[in-house]
Amino acid sequence: MPQPQKPTPKKGQPKNNYWYFYIVAFIEGGAVMACELLGAKMIAPYYGNSLYVWSSVLGTTLGGLTAGYFVGGYLSEKYPKDKTLLVILLISTLLFAGMPVISKGIMTATLSMSVQMGSLISCMVFVFPPLMCFGMVSPMIIRLISDEVKEVGKNAGTVYAVSTVGGILATFIFGFYIIPYLGLRFGAYFTACLLGAATVFYFMISKKKETAVS
Description:
Layout: H1 19-47, H2 51-78, H3 82-97, H4 99-109, H5 115-126, H6 128-145, H7 152-182, H8 184-213
């Protein structure tokens, strides 16, 4: 029996070239580690660098990402659209840019608490929200680039690998150069600018894609 042929894309229809999603995943992965390192250093002047502080930061990081993965998985099924990812990127940009201001206010308000409770509450206020947004990014990207069920495993592996590479590079760049020499505020605003650039870039690509389809 003759094998059924795959439908040929219509003229003007964009190909499934999703390289821009991987750029977003790379930046998101770097932002996760930047958020963790910056958060720990912002807490240090108020609560120190003890095991309690790092436990709060690491636990909040994992909690934020876990919540983001869960919510992102739900949104990817309920609202599998480019606009959903754009909104997530925009919110994460604003939350990251506000970290230096929010952190100072919340830690001043919690200084009367114990190190454990004060550092944990502070992390939940200014570290948890952006990390939750970052956790939503990967499930959304995987959903948007997977046209068939059999593609999901490969796409998920690629997205998480690219995101992790971004995190590795950000760890060394922020830990060795940006934080020691340029400071926490610069690191926060620099990361926010990268996220904002990724948002604008993705918006332009999405509009171009919609124009090509129409």
